[in-house]
Design a protein that fits this description.
elongated; about 200 residues; 3-stranded antiparallel beta sheet
C-alpha cells in the first residue's frame, strides 16, 4: 500500500464536465466581475461552499436536541455571521444551504477595497493588495482572496509605508523628481553660459 505524504487536503475541485457551456459562461462572468486570476479561484470558493453546505445538511438530519447539532450548528452560524455571509435575521441552518458563490466573493478583500473606493477598478484593487499598499488593522495583507470579517471591514486602509498612505514616493515618482531637479539645475547652468557670451 502506498503512503500519502501530503500533509494537506486539496483546496479546489475541478468540475466533472469540463466543457459544459452554461457553467463555463457563468464562471467567466464571475472571473470578470470580481477580478479573479483564473477559474481555480471560483472552484476553490465552490469547494469551501460545498463543505459548509454538506456540514449544514448533516446537522439538519440530526434531531433538535442532539448534542452534536447543539454545538456544531451555532458554531457554523457564528462563523457565517462573523464573515458577513449571513446577517442577524438569518440565523438558521436552512439559510446556510441557500448560500452561493457570489456571497463568498463579495467578502474578499479585493472586492471590498474596490467597493470602498480605495481602488479605481477591481483589477486595480488586486494590484494594490499584491504590491503591499493595503492593510487590515495594523497588518499588511498581500492576499486578494483574504476573507474579511465584519468587524475588520472598517479598518481597511492604505499602509503607512505606501505612497498612497503618506509613505515615501514610489520608484517612478522619485525618478521624475530627480529628473526635474536635474533639469532645473541644468537649465540654470545653461542660462549662466548664455549670459557670459
Amino acid at each position: 500500500m502506498t503512503r500519502k505524504y501530503r500533509g494537506f487536503s486539496k483546496t479546489s475541485k475541478t468540475p466533472r464536465r469540463a466543457f459544459e457551456k452554461d457553467r463555463l459562461d457563468r464562471e467567466l462572468k464571475l472571473c470578470g466581475e470580481y477580478g479573479l486570476r483564473c477559474k481555480r479561484e471560483v472552484w476553490r470558493v465552490g469547494l469551501m461552499l460545498t463543505k459548509m453546505r454538506s456540514a449544514a445538511r448533516i446537522l439538519l438530519t440530526l434531531e433538535e436536541n442532539n448534542s452534536r447539532r447543539a454545538i456544531e450548528g451555532p458554531a457554523l452560524l457564528r462563523r457565517c455571521l462573523r464573515y458577513g455571509l449571513l446577517d442577524e435575521s438569518k440565523q438558521k441552518l436552512d439559510y446556510v444551504l441557500a448560500l452561493t458563490i457570489p456571497d463568498f466573493l463579495e467578502r474578499r478583500l479585493q472586492t471590498i477595497v474596490f467597493k470602498q473606493g480605495l481602488a479605481k477598478s477591481i483589477h486595480h484593487a488586486r494590484v494594490l493588495i499584491c504590491q503591499r499598499h493595503i492593510r487590515v488593522g495594523k497588518q499588511i495583507v498581500t492576499i486578494p482572496s483574504f476573507l474579511v470579517r465584519v468587524e475588520s471591514e472598517k479598518h481597511i486602509d492604505f499602509a503607512p509605508t505606501s505612497p498612497f498612505g503618506g509613505g515615501k514616493p514610489g520608484r517612478v515618482k522619485r525618478a521624475k523628481l530627480k529628473a526635474a531637479e536635474k533639469k532645473a539645475a541644468g537649465g540654470d547652468d545653461a542660462e549662466d553660459e548664455d549670459d557670459e557670451d
